[in-house]
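WARN  no MSA supplied for this record, continuing single-sequence
INFO  ligand: adenosine-5'-diphosphate
INFO  echoing inputs
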Amino acid sequence: MNKILSVNAGSSSLKFQLLSMPSERVIVEGIVERIGNADAIYTVKLNGNKERTTLSIKNHSEAVQLVLNDLIKRQIVASLDEIKGVGHRVVHGGEKFKESTIITPEVFKQIEEVSFLAPLHNPGAITGIKAFQEALPNVVHVAVFDTAFHQTMEPEAYMYAVPYEWYEKYGVRKYGFHGTSHQYVSMKAAELMGKPYEESKIITVHLGNGASLAAIKNGKCIDTSMGMTPLEGIPMGTRSGTIDPAIIEFICTKENKTVQQVLEDLNKRSGYLGISGLSNDSRDLEDAAAEGHYRSNLALDIQYKRIADYIGSYYVYLGGADAIVFTAGIGENNARCREVVCDRISALGVKIDYDLNNRVRGVVTELSTPDSKIRVFLIPTNEELMIARDTMRLAKL
Ligand code: ADP
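INFO  complex generated
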């Protein structure tokens, strides 16, 4: 048995799971939030109990020390030597990283080099890697990239029709995100269908606060909805998804704003929140829409239409589909979203069992009826587990 830490570090947060491998059991999980503040929050979940502490945490190193000391204090590990590997989620791997990689000093430098592509996301991961490497210098550290699974796209799918030099000089292209999740749920769907992954056509719909779809042919991603940044694609909790880029200059002029300010509007004040004017949370919008709130209903309809648009286009690009998979917070829990989307793609011969769909939450379920032309699944995602598996594999444990 090996204990593996799966880590997801953001600019001010540090999320972790300690897993027992190969049984894949979660021993403990937790999160440190508001790092850099006097009132940072440490939440730990152990044996079904959740404990929350507010304390001062100056930086990621302190957060890592807090977590590791706590594992010892609670006798979850007798010594830190029991932790055999640490897997780190890194959002952007650029074109450099096509798969998960052991973090050598050279790899660390390369992660820093591609960070210009994800200035909002990668620095947190880099700080997290540094802090864990200092605390656990003798174990294997592995980087697992959100972009890696999408690196199999063909140029026709990942290139934007813009001056080619933008790609050559600055790497302007579609990279895609949530790759670990798309890979996990598509592998699981193939397994549930009893089909070899290498001979399957699957459309995955990851709907959380951030949301993206992927078209996966024979185990390889051939298209995905997020782009060079997570802003492209379908509307999300606070992101607009794809818009006419000319709107940016138009609003800059009309509202006397900078490009950065308008991009912030598109990233943080659009999507569900922007249209509804109420909330970025799908539960609030479903509740308000049920009570007749026009803009909440509209926010949901815009997103559901765009999801159906992508599924239709991926169906064509894949040359058919064996399965459609719903996952992440909304995909796993919001029955109405799945129902409306499946109704909107009924032209593809998709049929689901509405009663079953209404009953299930967050558990692996086949939602389609036996006469549906495409099988539809709800599969809870598990990025932490994928990170732990890759860490085990690369560390040769
Ligand atoms: P993130 O992208 O931040 O990881 P999540 O995958 O947690 O996001 O998804 C957040 C979204 O999932 C929110 O819109 C929330 O309303 C929805 N969601 C989460 N849990 C539930 C639930 N139990 N019922 C309905 N919706 C849920």
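The longest strand covers residues 37-46.
INFO  checksum written, moving to next record
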